[in-house]
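Good morning,

Attaching, inline, the backbone tokens for the sequence recovery test we're adding to the shared suite. The designed sequence is right after.
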């Protein structure tokens, strides 16, 4: 790596211990340096395509090669919005990785949050020709940052809608299982191949870049959702069958009621 500051001392046990702990710090630093390098490379790669699209169109417009149409301006505008979303998501991710997201945890009813998220997505589901169903019969209390949980729900729901074809169905369910709060978002959509499943939570990973671009995703939604859920002491899992559908399951430690206990 770039960093070569390892200490090599044998014998004297104090010194050896010091050297060992110094070396493990150096490895951690090196690791985070390597991760930063990779992150920057990924971001540059992600932003290059929309930027060069934008530049190409602007040049064609100013050369009079294409006519200024409302559709063209709308799609250029869409490109800038997408870049804004990528930057917003990256900021959340960077703060989370630095342990600096500043969660404000209060008792929250997961059923109510799910219900609000479903309401917020009704119009989009209808537009996409999908049935959107909520099964959350009773309150399920968790200790959580409500805004961040809303973000998780929003990501899972908008993915379910985006990756499901017309006449499909999306079911959001909230319940309790073995002292855990369990949220599932199940769709009858395009599904994810078994070999791709281990990658879905990686940043910028997508099964089908063309479809993802057409639907305006950033490739960071699930990475952020995973981060937020694990920061809450929970787990997020995915099960899927191509052409049959996908189920995301979020498990969080449940509270026995709205009071803290
Ligand atoms: P984005 O949706 O912006 O691409 P995400 O991190 O939210 O980014 O998702 C990563 C990839 O996982 C998507 O591009 C898609 O290939 C796959 N994916 C996510 N949710 C679903 C789903 N409900 N059904 C099928 N594929 C999905």
């Amino acid at each position: 790596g770039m960093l070569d500051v390892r200490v090599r001392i044998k014998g004297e046990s104090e010194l050896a211990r010091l050297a060992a702990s110094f070396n493990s710090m150096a490895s951690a630093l090196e690791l985070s340096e390597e991760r930063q390098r990779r992150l920057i490379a990924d971001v540059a790669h992600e932003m290059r395509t929309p930027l060069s699209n934008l530049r190409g169109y602007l040049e064609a417009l100013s050369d009079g090669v294409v006519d200024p149409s409302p559709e063209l301006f709308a799609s250029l505008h869409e490109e800038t919005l997408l870049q804004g979303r990528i930057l917003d998501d990256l900021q959340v991710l960077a703060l989370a990785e630095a342990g600096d997201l500043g969660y404000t945890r209060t008792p929250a009813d997961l059923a109510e949050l799910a219900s609000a998220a479903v309401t917020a997505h009704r119009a989009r589901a209808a537009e996409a020709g999908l049935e959107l169903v909520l099964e959350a019969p009773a309150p399920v209390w968790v200790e959580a940052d409500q805004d961040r949980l809303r973000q998780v729900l929003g990501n899972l729901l908008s993915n379910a809608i985006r990756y499901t074809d017309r006449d499909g169905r999306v079911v959001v369910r909230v319940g309790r299982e073995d002292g855990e709060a369990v949220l599932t978002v199940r769709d009858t959509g395009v599904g994810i191949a078994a070999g791709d499943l281990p990658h879905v939570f990686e940043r910028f990973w997508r099964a089908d870049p063309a479809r993802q671009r057409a639907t305006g995703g950033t490739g960071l939604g699930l990475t952020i959702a995973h981060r937020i859920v694990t920061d809450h002491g929970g787990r997020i899992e995915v099960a899927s069958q191509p052409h049959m559908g996908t189920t995301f399951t979020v498990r969080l430690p449940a509270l026995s009621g709205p009071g803290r206990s």
